[in-house]
Structure formats: structure tokens, C-alpha cells
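Notebook entry, structure prediction.
Reason for the run: the old model in the group folder had no record of what sequence produced it. Starting over properly, with the input documented here first.
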Amino acid sequence: MEPEQIRRLIDECFTYLSSAQRSEIFDALNEALLSPKNAAVRAPMIDYFVQPALAVGAAQQRLAQKALEEKQMIAAQFLAATLGMAQEEQQQLSAVLRQGLLPLANDLGQLMLAALER
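New structure, fully documented this time:
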């Protein structure tokens, strides 16, 4: 797999991350792949990265295609699941949602954040 293909995979599968964050992922992975000490394991390293990346991209697409009512139901289930969490954990989760670090459609992430911060 060529570096351009890896970059395209990252850009397509991790759309919820900023361009800078996607560049960081590419740079770190590319550096590891180019390291002479990893020459014997380059192909497994690529496979190890590609499969989860494709799964994340597919899951993100499925979530994005859900109807608003389904997204609201997911947000309500999310709220119910977080009610027993300590306030500090809820704040950390809010920060992660605010930063867009989860592979969620933007509107679903916002619904979940709104539910958590009620």
C-alpha cells in the first residue's frame, strides 16, 4: 500500500477528526512503516491499521444515514447509560464529544452532548 493510499484511507475513514489530527495519524503511521526496524512487519502493520479504519468508516456512514428519530433514541440510550457515571467521568466524556474525537456523525455527537449536559 502506497503512502497516498494510506492518506486517502485515513481521510475517508476518520472524517470526524480535523485535518491536522488526520495528518498526525498519517505521519506517525508512515514514520513507523518507514523505520528499518519494522521492515519485516510492514505488511502486518498495514493490515492491523486498515481493517479497523475501514470498520470505523463504515460505522460512521451507518450512523450518519440514520433518521433523526433514531439518532435521538441513541442519544437517550446514551444518557441512560451515563447516569451512573461519576461527574468527573461525565465531564471527560463531554470534552471528548465537544472535541469531536468519536466516530460519530456531527448531529449525533451534538445530540449526545446535549443529552449529557442537561
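Summary: Residues 42-64 form the longest helix (23 residues).
The old model has been moved to the deprecated folder.
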